[in-house]
Amino acid sequence: MDDLVTPVSKAIAQLKGLLGDRLVTSASVREHHSHDTSRLAPHLPDAVVFPRTEEEVQAIVSACAAHGVPVVPFGAGSSMEGHTIPIRGGISLDTREMNRIVEIRPEDLLAVVQPGVTRKQLNVDLRETGLMFSVDPGADASIGGMASTRGSGTTSVRYGTMRENVLALRVVTPDGEAIQTGSRARKSSSGYDLTHLFVGSEGTLGVITELTVRLHPIPEAISSAICSFPTVANAVEAVIEAVQYGIPVARVEFLDEVAIASTNNYSKLGLPVAPTLFFEFHGTEAWVKEQAQLVEEITKGHDAISFRWTADADERAKLWQARHDLYWATKAIIPGFELYTGDICVPISRLAESIVAARADIDASSLKGQIIGHVGDGNFHTAYLIDPNNPEHLKEADEMADRVVERALAVGGTASGEHGIGIAKLKFMRKEHGKAVDVMKRIKAALDPLGIMNPGKMGDAG
Amino acid sequence: MDDLVTPVSKAIAQLKGLLGDRLVTSASVREHHSHDTSRLAPHLPDAVVFPRTEEEVQAIVSACAAHGVPVVPFGAGSSMEGHTIPIRGGISLDTREMNRIVEIRPEDLLAVVQPGVTRKQLNVDLRETGLMFSVDPGADASIGGMASTRGSGTTSVRYGTMRENVLALRVVTPDGEAIQTGSRARKSSSGYDLTHLFVGSEGTLGVITELTVRLHPIPEAISSAICSFPTVANAVEAVIEAVQYGIPVARVEFLDEVAIASTNNYSKLGLPVAPTLFFEFHGTEAWVKEQAQLVEEITKGHDAISFRWTADADERAKLWQARHDLYWATKAIIPGFELYTGDICVPISRLAESIVAARADIDASSLKGQIIGHVGDGNFHTAYLIDPNNPEHLKEADEMADRVVERALAVGGTASGEHGIGIAKLKFMRKEHGKAVDVMKRIKAALDPLGIMNPGKMGDAG
């Protein structure tokens, strides 16, 4: 801290009285809150606060409003596009001490949690109920953070994203008021849908202080299947047909040849090196078996090279562990290199061509890379291996990632399927949303006239 | 039209040049647009317009903005709480000539439609595709109107409400701009979720000019079941257990004893006069059979009096026809009387007590009435039979309906499950949403600073 009396030093002094040692200005804690998992330049907050209650969040936001100081909510720090980087300094509001599971209501298939609760923490607490919180973005993210980025993952094709799984919120708005959005009813035709306005707003409209989330029954039986195809188009067409047939696949993950080769190498799966789908089916014993049989039939009609299904829990665990280890498997291709990750979503009819074009880009570049996808949703990720110390690599990766997005937008898709806008994708907001960006900005200005909530991000884009 | 030059006469003169005989000021057409299906007092619009294109909607809204004249969107006129009544006069914007199905994309499980397309019209066009538009509010409503009221119905327990089934919109905002919200991708983490802000906003934030809606595969097999219980609680607990078990019931409708008696009388069903569930199961032949068996087991555990299931299409059609004819069956109880309909939604754990209390209210009143419900969602409707010429009846019905809502709000429910706020439920907005109403009003003021879009309704509530 310097001796100069600035707005931020006034806000910090005011909050120190309230929070004591839960307001931290040490270099190490500020550094931890200066970045997320992205490659983007870090920026230090002036202080980090660790509130425990909604009232404390109200006091923090009110103090920052009074002094015009930025507030940047921070969950588990697992965001991937720079969401939590406090690019204009101010206060990083870390929700880790708001980690209480407030209520579990099995009959209503819902849980009420504070924003710092992580998805794994909630699922541990649910163990006795036979229910699960379904959204799984890979990282053990905070549920508040997952709501803020409208996160999803492998199970969203069946159980939905955070959009479908957040029923109600408590939010501290930029003027320090606490509001409730939504209710515990499963549906409602009452009032503007503020819940969905806050879900995905990346901390630019307020601070989420409580979430009511949907739970789903843990299925009686689960089975998996692995299926390889001669081409990407065959694989995608098989998925389209399975979905059109009404088979409620619980997961269907695409891995391209390079991803299969690296996972073979890392996880010793011994799979044919070809475009591959990992399926998971949920249901009763009989229904799971029937789903696998129906999908096998469908894949045969699309020239599948092989179809292997299993209801064995160990074999299934091995398969999904390999899928989850893909990050490490890919990094292992060139030791010391980093993964540069892309994320777009297209209408599923345009998925095959989008993947093929992204693959061709990689093959024509000097970089190695792979493509994986939550293919039932039309969502896929590119991962380029780059030497973090080589600016040419970064430039080449940037250009390729931009082309993937441009092509997605050209076919009616979106610049982000699940990672969000953060900082890295601000440049696509106007292109994707056109004049709707002006409506977004008017909403931002109406709710946050001082511009204190996560400034320079989604609310100010385009 | 009078000779006085008023803002509205100027707007009408301006629009007459654009629309010719698609701007109508005849008494009969104005009368038709002065009411909906509710008991609420009608109010005449000054004129009714029938645009065919988004550009025409833009011109209409721009002219109304220029002269400060209200614009009230009108679909099929089947709303139930006064949504479309132009209580401050102005222009009723009827979307019936915007009834083109723009595009059907079977591979992407979506259709693009103009707002005046009705749900039945879309389903006729889908016949060759094996797909269906699932939302069924009973009436053959316009899809634009269903989106505006966040409508739902019997199938929402499985396939979702309009909230889950609208993927993207085109909207003319109150300043006459046309924007696109959402995309054709099934999921997105890009930008504020404007789609969900407009869905359910009851024409107070803009005019919907195009909708991208989700489609679902028509199931290979469908079966139905009817099950009677000694008490409401038994019936509701059976539903809760079935849902917790993970059985994806496609419909589950509750009818109380009075509803069963009237449907027996009207549709000759011969059912036991007891709290009853109508189930429908969708899936493959084997899976549908298994679902029915599992549900039968579950209902036995909750003291079911009888369980009758059928995969026979004619018997099923008869059953659901009877459910759809309930309106007429109930009206037939006392010829000349009208139905006064209520609509709330509660967490399902509070459903049994809510229904029992609503039933006790009716039994203690001078009126006859019944209760039916989309019970898998916790949504139920009260219907009181009133003599429309007896103000005492209306007063008694008003008081009972209010108590149903008050009790729903007290247990974490909502003032409307699917009929919306309109005029009739404005008085509950502040009670349900608290300070969130101020956020809604700030959004309304930011998007519609002149207050021309359906004024005096949801955007100005509380």
TrEMBL record, chains A, B:
<dbReference type="InterPro" id="IPR036318">
    <property type="entry name" value="FAD-bd_PCMH-like_sf"/>
</dbReference>
<dbReference type="InterPro" id="IPR016169">
    <property type="entry name" value="FAD-bd_PCMH_sub2"/>
</dbReference>
<dbReference type="GO" id="GO:0071949">
    <property type="term" value="F:FAD binding"/>
</dbReference>
<dbReference type="InterPro" id="IPR004113">
    <property type="entry name" value="FAD-bd_oxidored_4_C"/>
</dbReference>
<dbReference type="InterPro" id="IPR006094">
    <property type="entry name" value="Oxid_FAD_bind_N"/>
</dbReference>
<dbReference type="GO" id="GO:0008720">
    <property type="term" value="F:D-lactate dehydrogenase (NAD+) activity"/>
</dbReference>
<keyword id="KW-0809">Transit peptide</keyword>
<keyword id="KW-0560">Oxidoreductase</keyword>
<dbReference type="Pfam" id="PF02913">
    <property type="entry name" value="FAD-oxidase_C"/>
</dbReference>
<dbReference type="GO" id="GO:1903457">
    <property type="term" value="P:lactate catabolic process"/>
</dbReference>
<protein>
    <recommendedName>
        <fullName>D-lactate dehydrogenase (cytochrome)</fullName>
        <ecNumber>1.1.2.4</ecNumber>
    </recommendedName>
</protein>
<comment type="similarity">
    <text>Belongs to the FAD-binding oxidoreductase/transferase type 4 family.</text>
</comment>
<dbReference type="InterPro" id="IPR016171">
    <property type="entry name" value="Vanillyl_alc_oxidase_C-sub2"/>
</dbReference>
<keyword id="KW-0285">Flavoprotein</keyword>
<dbReference type="InterPro" id="IPR016166">
    <property type="entry name" value="FAD-bd_PCMH"/>
</dbReference>
<feature type="domain" description="FAD-binding PCMH-type">
    <location>
        <begin position="41"/>
        <end position="218"/>
    </location>
</feature>
<dbReference type="Pfam" id="PF01565">
    <property type="entry name" value="FAD_binding_4"/>
</dbReference>
<dbReference type="InterPro" id="IPR016164">
    <property type="entry name" value="FAD-linked_Oxase-like_C"/>
</dbReference>
<dbReference type="GO" id="GO:0004458">
    <property type="term" value="F:D-lactate dehydrogenase (cytochrome) activity"/>
</dbReference>
<keyword id="KW-0274">FAD</keyword>
